[in-house]
Structure formats: structure tokens, C-alpha cells
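Dear support,

I submitted the protein below through the web form. The confirmation email said the job was done, but the results page showed an empty box. After a refresh the structure appeared. I'm attaching both so you can tell me whether what I see now is the final result or a partial one.
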Amino acid sequence: MHSNSVIWRGLSMVVLLIALALGMAPTRAQSQSPPIHVIEVKGVINPLTARYLERTLADAERDGAGLLVMRLDTPGGLDSAMREMTQAILAARVPVAVYVAPSGARAASAGMFLTLASHVAAMSPGTNIGAAHPVSIGTPVDEVMAKKIAQDAAATARTLAAQRGRNAEWAEKGVLESASMTEREALERGLIEIIAVDQSDLLTQLDGRVVTTPAGAVTLRTRGVTVNDVPMNLAEQFLHIITDPNIAFLLLTLGLYGLIIEFQSPGFGLPGTVGVIALVLAFVAFGNLPLNWAGLGLIVLGVILLIVEALSPGFGATGTAGLAMFALGALMLYRPFTPTSPAMPVVAVNPWLVAAITGGTGALIFFAVSKSIQAQRAPAISDVSHRMVGAVGQATTDIALTGTAQIAGELWTAVADGNQPIHSGERVEVVAVQGITVRVRRVVETPPDNPKGTFSQPGG
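What the results page shows now:
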């Protein structure tokens, strides 16, 4: 009996150990699943967002991540940056899932191409996807060139959709017909694979899917794994902020004003330093925006005319023309005269901001002109006047507080020193010169001495 008891205890221990091993197996597998990296691309697609995606893809590959999720909300962006990003996704050895979120977000223009390039495309309820046909502003557009640009973009959309097994026909319509679809329509027409209410729902639906990368077929393991948010670093965040069209315009204006103020004063101080930094940042931002050089030229020319007006008397045609050129240049600063890519959204400076800065500039120039006119009308004070201290003249009027005095053949406004009244005709001496006014005091007449040996006797 004792031996049987020992045997049963031994078997019980073995069964318990096996059960524990089986129970822990999923946990070990789960803990060993590669992490998921999540990035957020929001706003205009530009070279900065392209660098951000390339950096995070490299980090994900280095860290052995099993998936990179891109939360996307964009109106579009530069064609060159969009193509860099689609090429990076197509070449990525780490699977990329594009998730258009949150509700109210969009994957317009360039965003549609990024979604088509992803290994898995998902959208949140209340979002949309599509593209805009090329639009030109200004001079007449070469019809042949516009057609070539549109057809090239359509071919890119078809290629991306076909490579990922999506509906190439509807992808092409998104370009040529400016079609825009809700998340439900995109799912029904085969442009996306998932509608997910949030990121947790997305990861649940992604689990077990098989995608193909340059490294081969990959089965996604997304349940219970570590999720790492990878935001832009500080430098990327700062550069992303200044690439806002309105902020870039403000930096340009601040830079021009800083240099103008510096040129009006000797040395190279704070205004010049701020101006140079602002201009450098403005041109960094312009490198990420569809800059119209004609608009920039009009702004600079307008500022030059305003400077000329400030240095000349009156406020006339020169100042008015300068303000008009400044405002017109600001409005067309990001509006190229050639057809734009379907990936490019409408980028412009807020008209209210243009009106506010133009009005402020006009008021500033008017103030400067007024001061300039006052200075020009004021009598000039020569260095000779500063050497008049001690000169003697004659009061031509009574000087109680102020009056006039003839000093060195010139009539001056005079102020009584010490508030001691001076009568007209009395001799005065200049004590100080203050602008165009002299401060004077009465000259005390000393009576002549009596002749030697002569005395005055009282009573004769």
C-alpha cells in the first residue's frame, strides 16, 4: 500500500508539472512575440514625414518588431515625399499597416497612395479616402502636360493596388475622377481590408493574417504583444510645426522686418540675429512646401517699396504699391502656376492673417513716415550752437518763463535760468543749449569804481 501511494503521488506530480507547462506555454510564446511599433503621420506629407517613416522603419527592423502601424490623417502632400514613403513601405522587411484614424480623419491625395502601398489597409468609422485631380492656378495650363501628370499618378495608383491585391480600377478612379469614398465604400470596393473602431480592435483583427514582404511571408501575431508608440523626436516635431504654411509666412515676415530694423541702427544686434534665424527657418519650411517663387519675389519687392516710402516724405503711390505687392505675394506664395500632382492638397496662407499683417505693416510705415516728416521739418542744430555757452546777448522780449533773445546775431527761443524773470533789453548770458532753445541768465552790471582821491561827502 505504501509503495502504491508513492507511485500515485509521483504520477500526480508528473501530471501537475505537465499541466503547468501547458498552461505557461502560451505565456512564453506571447512574451516572445515581437513588439509592435506605432507611428502617427498627421498633416501635409512632406520630406520631413518621409524621413520620419524611414527612421522608424529602420528602428523597427533593428528592434525585431513584428509590425509597424501608421495612424494616418492627411489632406495630401508633395509628390516626391509621397513616392519616397511608398517606396520605403514596399521595400520594408517589417509589415506595415496603415490605419486611417481617428474618426473624422482622411487619407486624401497622397494619403490614398500610402494606404494602397501598405501590407494591410484599415480605416476607422467616419473616415474617408480619395484624391483630388490636378488643379492649376494662374496662367493657362498646358493640357498635354496636365494629362501626363494625371495619367502618371493613375498608373502609380493602379500599380500599388495590383501589387497588394486591391481594386486597381477604383484606385485609378480615385485619381482620374477625384473619387472619394467612405470607409464602408472602400471596404466594399476592395481598397482596404479592415474597419476597426480603435487600435485595440485593429490589432485583434490583424492577428493571424499572412502578408508578404521582401523577406518572405509573415504571419502577424498581434494579440497581447507589447505596443510601442514611436513619436517624432523633438527636432522633427519642431520642423513639423514650422512647415505649417501660416507659420512659414510669419517667419518670413519676421525675418524681413528684423533685417530692416537692424539696417536702420548701427551694429549687429538682437533684431538682426532674430531676423537671420527667422529667415533660415522660413526657407527650411519652404523646402517642404510648394513654394511659388513669384509670390516670394512680390513680398520682397513690396517690402523694398515700403522701405523707400518710409525714407521719403509723404505716404503716396510707393507705399500703396508696396502694400498691394506684399498682400498679393502672400496670397500666391504657395500657389504654383504649373499643374500640381494629385497628391498635393491646396496649401495657402490664411487670408485673414494676410490682411492683419498687411494692415499692421501699413500702420507701422505710416508711423515711421510721420516721424520722418517731423524730423525733416525740425530745424537743424549745428555744432556751433553747442559752443554758444557763455555767449552774451540781449533779451528782445520779457522772459518770465520763455521769450526770445538775440545771441550772436541770431534770434533764439530763450528760457530764464532758475525761473528768474528777465526784462526786455537786459543783457543775458547763455548758460546751456537745449535743442533749439537756450537757457539764459541776467548779466549783472558792475558800477565803475570812483576816481582815485575823490570822496563823496554827505550834505555837499
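Response: this is the final, complete result; the empty box was a page-load delay. The chain has three domains: 33-232, 236-377, 383-442.
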